[in-house]
Design goal:
single chain, alpha/beta, TIM Barrel, 2 domains, eight-stranded parallel barrel, 19 helices, 48% helix, 9% strand, disordered N terminus, oxidoreductase, proline dehydrogenase activity
Length: 508
């Protein structure tokens, strides 16, 4: 196996020597998986085992067991170091005890839907015809944050009870495949409302209830879907510099309105909490399908230049899909472009968004899962090193969201951030770990409960029920990649056992 370093659209000379060295290092490093997509898998189900059996692990635990998590704060690097040889042992299904009975029933139903591939395929085919009332009753609650601002705020507080102190909220209305119901004005208005009505109050509450450094609280994020900000968005993004310049400028203006709300909120909060290093809230440009990405990249660059000023926090984060074979060169190219144009980069690195629907998989993605893992781990390593080694916001790369369900990648990121050397490093608050709501919950639990990592968030989709159906279908498809592991029969047994144990305990 060799890591593919030859880009398809970006010049190889854009790779810095340090980044190229990092890529080569990971190309020679053994990985633990061979399945392609970054979804919960067998290794995630047994996260505790893999962490504890690794003699070189960096963040072991002796945290006590418990049914719920009460707002933990990150363990100090010294305490982490002192626990290297004393890992704790927790049941792989312990994480389910943090969920209520209705959520356990939802997990049970997801397990039934993913018992095997024939059942999964049948469920996917039938899903578009299932009434939304049934979907809401059975699975909606574990994947979506709600329909209204107030419901999403309550979801945030529920996450807080599990030790997850912030979230990335996403209004799920989009039109990557065409959607006549898209109303760009409504979407941008609702997005701005969500910034001021959800994220700002939530992080303020988290800061006020935090008993230590306010930088222990992760930033709050709002995900912006480019295909929701203009009519016929897919066509506009494909032809942003070929006849659709005016429509693309409208799309940029809509996105800028949301980013301006983020920028203004940060300035106001910074006056109240001047000791905060990381941004309070951040706008994230979500990825789209490969054929739309050139337009999305241009959107990101214009927003970077407008809002991510030198020597200031990064208020805008763009997404790079690391399963694409040219992503390493793209990352380096974006860094060089930012240096030339005097702005900073905020990045969200994802491993496999939209992989099921990519039309040109044979030519645009890495050939093996190991190549993808190497590329992803090299990318997050390079970005984390850039962030941690900077002084006074001087690094071009200023903020990173490690968006992954892969326990080894999350362990790698945490092992670089939570070290004794970084005990007083104010830049570590600019590295955040994120997973989708309802997915990789065993990994999330393990990071927070057992390893006491505090920089964890959840991606919380919300919006009108009918508009979230496509999002829910994608979640079902992605869960299907793990039918023999996290989901299927193991999840059915675990959810049923937890629910029965709770009922018998209550009746005794």
């Amino acid at each position: 196996m060799s890591l593919r370093l030859i880009p398809t659209r970006y010049p190889t000379r854009s790779l810095t020597a340090s980044y190229a060295s990092t890529l080569k290092t990971f190309a020679k490093t053994p990985t633990f998986y061979r399945r392609f997509h970054d979804t919960p898998n067998a290794q995630n189900t047994a996260t505790q085992q893999s962490f504890q059996n690794d003699p070189n692990h960096m963040i072991p635990t002796n945290a006590p067991q418990g049914a719920r998590i009460a707002t933990p704060t990150p363990a100090s690097p010294l305490s982490v170091s002192s626990r290297l040889t004393h890992p704790g042992k927790v049941s792989p299904n312990e994480y389910l005890k943090a969920f209520n009975n209705k959520e356990l029933i939802s997990f049970f139903m997801i397990g039934l839907c993913t018992l095997n591939k024939p059942i999964l395929k049948l469920c996917i085919k039938l899903f578009p015809y299932v009434p939304m009332a049934v979907i809401k009753a059975l699975v909606y609650r574990i994947y979506c944050g709600g329909e209204t601002l107030e419901e999403v705020k309550q979801t945030g507080l529920r996450l807080h009870e599990r030790g997850i102190n912030n979230m990335m909220i996403s209004l799920t209305i989009e039109a990557c495949d065409g959607n006549d119901n898209v109303d760009p004005e409504f979407i941008i208005d609702e997005t701005v409302k969500s910034i001021n009505g959800i994220l700002v109050p939530h992080i303020t509450k988290m800061i006020e209830t935090c008993d230590k450094n306010i930088n222990d609280i992760p930033s709050g994020y709002v995900a912006l879907k480019p295909t929701g900000f203009v009519k016929n968005a897919a066509h506009v993004l494909k032809n942003y510099n070929n006849g659709e310049e005016a429509a693309f400028a409208e799309l940029v203006a809509k996105a800028s309105k949301a980013c301006q709300a983020v920028y203004d909120a940060n300035k106001k909060l910074a006056e109240i909490y001047p000791e905060r290093t990381a941004p309070f809230v951040v706008a994230v440009i979500d990825a789209e399908k490969y054929e739309l990405q050139p337009g999305v990249y241009e959107l990101q660059r214009q927003l970077y230049q407008k809002f991510n000023k030198l020597n200031e926090p990064c208020y805008v984060v763009g997404t790079i899909q690391m399963y694409l074979s040219d992503s390493a060169s793209l990352l380096a190219y974006e860094e060089r472009l930012a240096q030339e144009k005097n702005y900073r980069l905020g990045l969200k690195l994802v491993r496999g968004a939209y992989i099921h629907s990519e039309k040109e998989r044979a030519t645009i993605i890495h050939k093996t899962k190991q190549d993808t893992d190497d590329n992803y781990n090299a990318g997050i390593t390079y970005c984390i090193d850039s962030i941690l080694n900077q002084k006074d916001k001087e690094s071009t790369i200023g903020h990173l969201v490690v968006a992954s369900h892969n326990a080894e990648s999350l362990k790698l990121a945490s092992s670089k951030v939570y070290t004794q050397e970084n005990a007083t490093n104010v830049n570590k608050s600019n590295v955040v770990l994120g997973q989708l709501l309802g997915m990789a919950d065993s990994v999330t639990y393990d990071l927070i409960k057992n390893y006491q990592i505090g920089n964890v968030i959840k991606y919380v989709a919300w919006g009108p029920p009918l508009e979230t159906k496509q999002y829910l279908l994608r979640r079902l498809e992605e869960n299907g990649d793990a039918v023999k592991n996290d989901n299927g029969w193991p999840l059915v047994k675990a959810a049923f056992s937890t629910l029965m144990g709770r009922m018998f305990k209550a009746s005794s």
